[in-house]
Write a structure and sequence with these properties.
258 residues; single chain; 9 strands; alpha/beta
Amino acid sequence: MKDSDLIVLLCQDCDATRVVYHALKTKFKNVRVITENPVSKVQMAKRRMKRIGKFAVFGQVLFVSLAVPVLRSMSKKRLAEIKQNYNFDFSPLPSDTIHVETINSDEAREHLRKLAPKVVVVNGTRIISKETLRSADAPFINMHMGITPLYRGVHGGYWALAENKNDLIGTTIHYVDEGIDTGSIIEQAYFEPSKKDNFYTYPYLHLVAGVPILLEAVANVLSGKTVEAKKRDDLPSQLRYHPTVWQYFYLLLRKGVR
């Protein structure tokens, strides 16, 4: 592996991004970060309304604004336990982080062209445009919190539990294309949440499962090893969203899914 082999982390700043960055930096010397602003909540709600309707989006907004803060407060002890057990580093991103309004801007594409990375790791961004994907002669690799293609979108582990598919609770490393978590699969890793876990802590368990196989995938690219893409023809493809507040409490009361 050469010192000149650059990894670019294309992301939004959040706990998961910080964990991924510090894991990459521990294993590889040359890592740069490009962050973007989150998509506005209003814009995101409008997009979802077109897909699933106003009533469902209203229920999701209620869940995020009312239930999630309670779950976050209840999960402090468990989250501290996960952080300690897996030595997660949540310290800030480096001072040389490049910030752009959106990864699909001309500015972002120009940074990618100038940096000329060997591999681009994606975490928590909006859907990446064809033009941005073509701005670097490198594979774009994403860590997705769910087993694709059945659990595309968000909160794959939660939905697997809700559907009694405990064997499909896990994290997917995949190549990025223009779809929503539709890229070819590199590797998948599975985990079993404890009774202490809930909707708020599941994403951190996805990180526990996913970071090691992400690092392996990046190492293989940098070493020139061919990383074969995989298909899951045994699973249908479905896009997932946040639960509505009434879905969450129904599943909690009927199935004990937290």
